Amino acid sequence: MSSASGFAKDIDIDAEETQEWLQALQGVLQEVGPDRARFLLSRLSAAAQQWGINWRDARNTPYINTIRPEQEPPFPGGSDAQAIEEHLATVMRWNALAMVVRANRAYGELGGHIASYASAADLFEVGFNHFFRARDAQFAGDLVYFQPHSAPGIYARAFLEGALSEDDLSFYRREIEAKKHGKQGLSSYPHPWLMPNFWQFPTGSMGIGPINAIYQARFLRYMEHRGLLQDQGRKVWGVFGDGEMDEPESLAALSLASREKLDNLIFVVNCNLQRLDGPVRGNGHIVDELETLFAGAGWNVIKLLWGSDWDGLFARDKDGELIDALNRTVDGQLQTFAANDGAFNREHFFGQTAGTRKIAETLTDEEINRLRRGGHDMKKIHSAYHAAANHRGQPTVILAQTKKGYGMGAAGEGKMTTHQQKKLDEEVLIAFRNRFKLPISDEQCKNLAFYKPAADSAEMKHLLGRRATLGGHMPRRVAGDAKRTVPSIETHAKFALDAEGKEMSSTMALVRMLSSMLKDADFGKYVVPIVADEARTFGMANLFRQVGIYSSQGQLYEPEDIGSILSYREAKDGQILEEGITEAGAISSWTAAATSYSVHGLPMLPFYIYYSMFGFQRIGDLIWAAADQRARGFLIGATSGRTTLGGEGLQHQDGSSHVTAAGIPNCVSYDPAYAYEMAVIVDEGMRRMLERNEDVFYYVTVTNENEAQPSIPQDVGLKGGIRDGILRGMYCLDAKADAQVRLLAAGPMLKEALSAARMLLDQFGVIAEVWSVTSFTELARDGIAVERQNRLTPSARTQPYVTQQLQAGKAPVIAVSDYVRTLSESIRAYVPARYVTLGTDGFGRSDTRANLRDFFEVDARWIAYTALTEVFGDDAGKLQAAAEKLGIDLTKPLSTSV
């Protein structure tokens, strides 16, 4: 068995019988066709298992192209068109190289990548010229996820198309400087936030692109099956690197794609066999490994390994010695061959056996040196793309073998250090120019001049003509100005505004609002409820019957609970996306829905409800990518906080998600205590995202802790009204002109603060004023903005909102939340009084809510005691007596130390 692919030349004890079997199979193939041949092979395999032979087909196919030469369709436009496109690819390579090297000659710290695009240029060119269809008035457009390290090449093509100027290329990775000169600058990787009219999908954090592409293809089907989008045969393409496939997210949803039969999805994995430091799989074949993974997950796999100039070699390989040598050669050795010349390869690769030496004897060393890998042969690439685009019933992956640093010669082609190459000397530049026959002078070459063929040249006419046929420039992001009218808050949240003491949790209130929205004849169909696998936990089971769970196959079984009013109902036009135990998959679904306004021109409103601890802790990078993509929607952190989820303990109890969320500029986060607060927040969020088209998304935490819900106060003496206070981050529930202490509390801690206020008054005669803090984050952001504005315009100073609200009186302020103290500490600079914070720092514990709050020192008794330390000062006797009266243990260890 070979060290790479698992293929071996087993000893044949009866060659004549073997030949008879092979001839019989060949006869079936010629007379009846491949379908019959496949059927017979499947029957033989099944029979072998049944008879105890214990045999299975090899996991991998031989290390050659999947598509045979005779199966290849003609190249569109023939050899002349192919020659033009090959020349254009060299122009793109040059301009991409020039852009990166220019930037690093002038500003050595900017970075950038040459080698990745050099390997992938032909893969992109065939896509751009023949397959990637842009959005226009008649067609909604294909969707392409671009390999992030290839961004310079995408800019180079946009320059030739006229979508970018030479000035734009001159400001590569200098976005801030570009703005000073009235230019846009070019971001390092695909970033819709930084280039909102260009990039559509962020892929800079490797591994995120593949899972997002899969769920994007699935969401496209969801929209088609629900009748919200027309089925136009759109494709989702993803071009990724082989090293990137080591990220768990890259492979996490492969089975979903095959299970859903997403034949609208095509992956192109650029297998240049090399990651940043060395081979992806030095001692094996990454192509074979990926073939096993994708084929095992149910994908259609196309190997694109060798160029047309290998076809004659394989035709002469009568005994299979060349194929066996390829099967046997590991990737690390293939990279060594890539980095050396024809003479080296003649001796060390073709010289392995007498048969392989004979196959190569008709080639010169130079011809051996120019043997191309499949990802550098446009005819082979076109054949693979054509087969993928026309395949039905499965997603397809094309495993395209290339050379990293292709064309960089001794400076980088196949070298271990090629990924880090950002500066090239003049000799290397001229060698590149000569190899690809670029019509630029030595002086232009040394100065890294950008090259653009004349407007009336055959190359430019071909390039622009192909893009015109395919709908225009790509990539291109179109946000549009489509708006959606949000129904009145009373239509879906009157129960929350006029609760009158009804008992419910904030999770229940949110789900009830969601249920009402879904019933709205005009608005409801655009709401997308998403859960991982906790719908029943979050009280959403009633939605199963109401709107159904999306399934591309409908429901092919009778559910066990069919007699229940809350039975599990799947439907092809179902509205709930119930993703199973995959937070990464669920957030990818949410991202697809939350960016539908730009991707499909159809604004949707997704609500992803999940255990708050499994959001920003577990999939924060995917949430950040959604922010980059300018997502609009609601993330609902359920069973939030560190003490509301009794019994669960360490990993399930969330004490930090609001701190993490605060770091994402366009994430608006709230921790409401009451149903009416939730109603106001959701209403404003919908209006900002759907009516005012703001590129923000909301993170709102809710709990499963039932409590009596008050109606919304009609007058709290707040300028702008209670709605304004809720949205800006805080408001006073019961103002006390003679307050001795002020208690600021968020979310589930509000009732503890109210209870503490009663204790203080009843047991110690201390008057406490209680404030509901709906968002420490919004308060802190306001403070930062006001402080900056005051520095810039000192003649027109204003005060932060927190300062304005607390400036009357000098009573000390105690702040408490169910999160770590860092959250409440974020507003310290704006509190105009002595300020003390309480929080849930430390690891979670499994116990009751009461014991958890005592452990973290955030319950009513601890809040009251902390307030008394401010009122009584250093009177140790009074404080000791107060502690005894409150029943708290002053000797207990700090929560972060146990």
Automatic annotation (TrEMBL):
This is Pyruvate dehydrogenase E1 component. Its EC number is 1.2.4.1. Keywords: Oxidoreductase, Pyruvate, Thiamine pyrophosphate. Its cofactor is thiamine diphosphate. Residues 492-709 form the Pyruvate dehydrogenase E1 component middle domain. Component of the pyruvate dehydrogenase (PDH) complex, that catalyzes the overall conversion of pyruvate to acetyl-CoA and CO(2). It catalyses: N(6)-[(R)-lipoyl]-L-lysyl-[protein] + pyruvate + H(+) = N(6)-[(R)-S(8)-acetyldihydrolipoyl]-L-lysyl-[protein] + CO2. The gene is mdeB. Residues 729-859 form the Transketolase-like C-terminal domain. Residues 201-309 form the Transketolase N-terminal domain. Gene3D superfamilies: 3.40.50.920, 3.40.50.970. It comes from Herbaspirillum rhizosphaerae. SUPFAM superfamilies: Thiamin diphosphate-binding fold (THDP-binding) (SSF52518), TK C-terminal domain-like (SSF52922).
